[in-house]
Amino acid sequence: MTGKLRGVFAPVLTPFDDNLEPDAARFIAHCRWLVDNQAGLAIFGTNSEAASLSIAERLTLTDALLEAGIPASSLMPGTGSSSITDAVTLTRHAVQNGAQGVLVLPPFFYKGVSDDGLFAYYSEIIERVGDDRLAIYLYHIPQMSYAPITMSLIERLLARYPASIAGAKDSSGDWNNSKAMIDTFSAQGFDVFPASESFLSRALPIGGAGCISATVNVNPAGIHALYQGWNGPDGASLQASADEIRTIFQAVPMIPAMKHAIAWQSATPGWDVVRPPLVKLAADTAASLESQLQAAGFTMRAYPQ
Fold it and tell me: How confident is the model over 216-231, as pLDDT tens digits?
């Protein structure tokens, strides 16, 4: 296993051009801005519209980042797929190119699959990749995958593959579940990232590793400041400020909302393009979003145009 990942990570938004093709130049610029603001890059997560990207597109965008000088050590690519062979291809590529960890969604088409089936899925990926550098972060998002990462599954995977199972992203939205993961497995080196900065002040004191949160895409500096200063004199105000921004974004469809915010803040209208079946924000919703963000003092400082 490679070095431990810590801090705040963005499931990086994927920009598209008017033909709905990935815009590599904007993707690189967005990733560079995030890294400059102390955020890690969980490329090809849920908010990346990863389910709408082909395997070839993901590999091409990863290569473009590396060729542009984005450090591989900042990457936690999403490599899960309903196809084991696709998951292995993406995972092997990430590991061989120096990614410190991979975020692996369980197969999400078949419903009601057993822990035995999920264990076999992760086992096949680990065995086929066959690389001591592999560090898998299990992706628990049952409301989307319908394949929960249970406590018993984590225990079983850790017992069989202690060097390859590095931790989890908990996107359940249930603090009690995140806490149980941390309390039960952190002593074994299993690192838990809740999927919201709203849990940072509760997760970090008990051994949480940070967060992998959608809104790191638009508020990386504020969330990183909270990660660093949660237990300092400004901790409560940093948490309140981060929560205010997140609350505004999560009240509307978050992917088009964050893309609209970038288009607005960077004066780059094309940034708001999403791939079907997603759609852009309606004009009145977009205007309301801007008004609320302005009232909250929101700004994306030094964002590239």
Answer: 999 999 999 999 999 9
What is the residue-wise DSSP string for 6-55?
A: -EEEE-----B-TTS-B-HHHHHHHHHHHHHTT-EE-TTSGGGTGGGS-H
Q: Which residues pair with 194 in a beta bridge?
A: 170
How many residues are listed for the chain in this entry?
305
**In Å, what is the CA distance from 300 to each residue of 15, 216, 222, 264, 294?**
17, 11, 10, 10, 11
Residue 37 in domain: yes
Average pLDDT, integer, range 112-119:
96
Residue 23 belongs to what domain range?
A: 7-232
Rounded to whole angstroms, how far apart are CA atoms 294 and 296? 5
C-alpha to C-alpha distance for 269 and 277, rounded to whole angstroms: 20
Q: Which among 46, 121, 47, 114 is positioned nearest to 82, based on CA atoms?
A: 121
CA angle 30, 7, 84 (to 5 degrees): 75
